[in-house]
Design brief:
The complex is a heterodimer of chains A (115) and B (111). Chain A has 115 residues and is mostly beta strands. In chain A, 0% of the residues lie in helices and 53% in strands. In chain A, strands 2, 4, 5, 6, 9, 10 and 11 form a 7-stranded mixed sheet that branches. In chain A, strands 1-3-8-7 form a 4-stranded antiparallel sheet, with no helix packed on it. In chain A, a hairpin with a 2-residue loop joins strand 7 and strand 8. The radius of gyration of chain A is 13 Å and the shape is globular. With 111 residues, chain B is mainly beta. In chain B, 0% of the residues lie in helices and 55% in strands. Chain B is globular, with a radius of gyration of 13 Å. Classes of the chains: A mainly beta (115), B mainly beta (111). At the A-B interface, strand 5, strand 9 and strand 10 of A face strand 5, strand 6 and strand 11 of B.
Chain lengths: 115, 111
């Protein structure tokens, strides 16, 4: 199956700093990528839909200035958590949709811990 | 609005026994339905999907699911569970380009 690579797998940062998470589709082009947040023992919460070449679409309640999304190419989307705070600590997962098969492939996730 | 319900937080089965993880959905049109599995601190792995056609869908690792339109259900099944099947399972519905996930069901298969 198609592969989506997410990097880094885990990151620890200090409060007030920014963290960038990358999501790459390795063997297919993804016009659309999705960013999710998952709290312990909870489901995935869609944060935003990343569209190549245009602005991301954010879900209600998600601060677009805090969670910056860039989808500059058909294989790469980035999520930058700006001025991170401990409450931003979470598991972030990206997915990329293969428009030909309707399947969404997920990255391995990024465990962010803000101290 | 679309929604997905996984009524069981936890399913426990003995190895070798059949397993079922339940999922019901609510959507205004014809949905795409998916099952994913998640291992600790990992992303989701695709198991199977229903788009159209045969109501019984076969997927990875011996899993299958049956789409039942009248009951709006898409239960995940496996004839003989393995200890290695122990994980967190998510049902998802996609409609109008947006995916909604259930809350997940933790499957534990005991030797």
């Amino acid at each position: 199956g198609a592969v989506v690579s997410q990097h880094p797998s885990w990151v620890i940062c200090k409060s007030g700093t920014s963290v960038k998470i990358e999501c790459r589709s390795l063997d297919f082009q993804a016009t659309t990528m999705f960013w999710y947040r998952q709290f312990p023992k909870q489901s995935l919460m869609l944060m935003a839909t990343s569209n190549e070449g245009s602005k991301a679409t954010y879900e209600q309640g998600v601060e677009k200035d805090k969670f910056l999304i860039n989808h500059a190419s058909l294989t790469l989307s980035t999520l930058t958590v700006t001025s991170a705070h401990p409450e931003d600590s979470s598991f972030y997962i990206c997915s990329a949709r293969d428009e030909g098969t309707f399947e969404a492939f997920f990255g391995q996730g990024t465990r962010l811990t803000v101290v | 609005a679309q929604s997905v319900a996984q009524p069981e937080d936890q399913v426990n089965v003995a190895e070798g026994n059949p397993l079922t993880v339940k999922c019901t959905y609510s959507v205004s049109g014809n949905p795409y339905l998916f099952w994913y599995v998640q291992y600790p601190n990992r992303g989701l792995q695709f198991l199977l999907k229903y788009i159209t056609g045969d109501n019984l869908v076969k997927g990875s690792y011996g899993f299958e699911a049956e789409f039942n339109k009248s009951q709006t259900s898409f239960h995940l099944k496996k004839p003989s569970a393995l200890v290695s099947d122990s994980a967190l399972y998510f049902c998802a519905v996609r409609f109008a380009g947006k995916s909604t996930f259930g809350d997940g069901t933790t499957l534990t298969v005991k030797p």
